[in-house]
Amino acid sequence: xxxxxxxxxxxxxxxAYVRLQKAAFAHLLQNANVSDGYMTPExxxxxxxxxxxxxxxxxxxxxxxxxxxxxxxPIQLQVASTLASGWHxxxxxxxxxxxxxxxxxxxxxALTNAPEADSVFFAFPNGNSKRGFDKIGWKVLHKVTTxxxxxxxxxxxxxxxxxxIDRFEADRDTLAARIAKKDQVxxxxxxxxxxxxxxxxxxxxxxxxxxxxxxxxxxxxVVRLVRAMGRDIAVAMELRxxxxxxxxxLLRQIAAWARGRKxxxxxxxxxxxxxxxxxxxxxxxxxTFVLPKKQLLMAGxxxxxxxETMIAMRWRVQTGDWDAF
Length: 325
Fold this sequence. Notes:
seven-stranded mixed beta sheet, alpha+beta, single chain, 9 helices, globular, 16 strands, nine-stranded mixed beta sheet
């Protein structure tokens, strides 16, 4: 039986960890013409210390060396005023010569047995890891729709009630409570979480916007430039508001940001984009068969009644909830 250690981030040799990640994903990144330059100890040191606590990493060793790892990040979830501990399973990596030995399932079992009650485990797996999740009974909660605006000028407009900011202030926390729905699970987008995820990112730069109304913040959006498939595009990471109207205004403003940088296309991944908003803002759904990866949200191994209830509900996830950008 495979022996698995579950370690805190501080107990991991990040130099060795980076070497394993690069070896595990070398073929995939090469085929996608993507550099592994972002895989650095500094990147993982940032990523594995979100505001909710330190990541847990399941480790398998062979002859003393790292053979396989799986990480999970503590991410707070919410439904209306109810909060729960969420754990985002990510960075599943096995050294090529160590594959086919069941290391991923051993790591996943060790991680899901570690936390406290009422923990919700979720992931955005690729094709290889999805099969591992399937084997232990995880379910696909949503196919995440990719929305494309093929010409940002259609929707671009400078909106007086929307302003660009450097960091998110504390009033963002009251908005997190106001936009939470009683029938929908989402990540709790506190000011601390948003500043960690975007403003303090060690590699990428993001543009952050808030919508002000009635002397308070009523919505926010985050966007960045991404080089993909040989061209520069705008990727909307976050789009949240107290109403569809506010989200549409935010979409128009980030389209104006894209237009100002001569970015003709903008992409947003979202499980709950109102179709009327999407069409008004010039977005169309992209068929999954033309995408390099079918984006899925999976969940399983609920720990407690609250976790079981949340997994059975509809979730709203967007591009930023998946950590690839």
